[in-house]
Sequence to fold (617 residues):
Amino acid sequence: MTKTVRLTAAQAMVRWLSVQMTEEGERYIDGMWAIFGHGNVAGIGEALQAYRDVFPTWRGQNEQTMAHAAIAYAKGKKRTRAMAVTSSIGPGSTNIVTAAALAHVNRLPILIVAGDVFANRRPDPVLQQVEDFDDGTVSANDCFRPVSRYFDRITRPEHLLSALPRALRTMTDPANCGPAVLAFCQDVQTEAFDYPVEFFAPRVWHIRRPAPDAGELARVAALIKAAKTPVIIAGGGVIFARAEAALAEFALKHRIPVAETQAGKSGLAQSHPMNFGASGVDGSAAANAALVRADLVIGVGTRFQDFTTGSRTMFGPEAKLVSINIHGYDAAKHGAESLVADAGVALERLSAAIGDYKGVPDAAAREDWLRAVDAHCARPADQAALPTDGQVIGAVQRAATDRAIAMCAAGTMPGALKLLWLPGQGGYHMEYGYSCMGYEIAGAMGLKLAEPDREVICFVGDGSYMMANSELATAVMRRVPFTVVLTDNRGYGCINRLQTLGCGGEPFNNMYVDCTIETQPEIDYVAHAAAMGAHAVKAAGTDQLEAEIRAARSRAIPTVIVIETTAKDFPGTGLKTTAGEHGFFWDVAVPGVSDRQKQRDHYARYIEQTAKARRVN
Fold:
């Protein structure tokens, strides 16, 4: 006779999560971020309190940002561990939808346990219930369906017996990895059920590393051996597969230059002789020049997103594409020759298959590029003048340790950091698949929890800081130290440049000075950060910024360093690429009708560029 134990559904969920293990003997779900409300306080809240000694709970300030912290943790752990998040019904749940989309786009695991309506419908409609006039099964949590990799609604206690293993199976699958959402009906959370004792036996989750198909491997090897000017584009899949060493060895042995995506940057240290820098719209002169003349482009763990490919205009019409990816969906993009496999295994097998093959990289172009970076990031002689973003990056780079991780998410800094930050192995963490403003501070906290022995430096603009800063208080309470470099250019400088320089528009509604407001704001970011308990200071110039970066390492709480910057375009003299001063083409639609000549000129150039795009999907 099967032994059982009587638990509420919520208790069963927490108890089961507490015994799901990694191959290294650690708990796979490291704990749960929680903001309680009606819909999760009575059921899940009680269960988390009961099991607090074996499964930790952390309180956040906002459902979206505590989910961002969980996502950054999973990324910092290279998807080998994850966190869970729970919310109340209604706005608590829909607050997390943005974070779920972020995790979905970036292929990152997170378990979202969202409070839901009553399964028995007795008190229907409950407070915060979204009613669909034509479908009685719909709740606010159906918003998660398009941005989750696994979705389940728990309307009976025994549903957990299948739903929980399915959720973690998705999260630990390198091909289908992403958010798992359990819409947990609030009455069901509190219902008792006799669960099999064996359901709570510890389980180890293994992450597979599939080998390539022999036919695909042979076809890709033949393409490489026939190529004269191949280039690798390294994406985030290199890092998630822990294939950094395999990529470094492959590129060096076969003398093939490597260009990096935002997600793939720091898979190779910048010091690696085959690291030619960033690819695409915000790419380096060396990498973009190599890609323009490449007869074979080899994607490794990349989605070939528009920033990476110059909106499909970068590669020549005769260039062939190869895509090494764990998922067939990504491997087939752009009509590429697919090699569906784990990145590390694929590179090892390919290296053996192509033998002594070697490319002919342009080493001089790489060195020219690095000299231009050094010049652009050099200490400004006039410390009283507002520094550029490049000069700020240079100051931080000079003061940071070799094991520092630069992290960011949206605005000017992602492009500037991709161009200019010269990381060591693993020294870069960017959320740019979803480009989500407000990720930065919560993400820095999650990253520091994942990598406690590394220096975490969070770059955030004033606009993104204003969107989501409250987890700074959480980091203070939990004593999670990291450094925030808050660059204040008085508005949305990045999108203002896109509006005026990229699309031919007039400055409007981005910089405070261009808004229809009566009074220009004078926001004291130092006082604001200090009010949440952080150590906060304003740097008068890059020299003081360097000093404050060094001083921050001695503190057990977050440090916020505010520095005013100029909003002028960051590439500047000396950083021109093969496609012009502002990097490679990016397809941002330009109005086809305008009474302004500047706008009409931009539209003409836009039509000229889009005609070059490869159309193969």
Remarks:
- Residues 4-204 form a domain with the Rossmann fold fold (CATH 3.40.50.970).
- The radius of gyration is 25 Å.
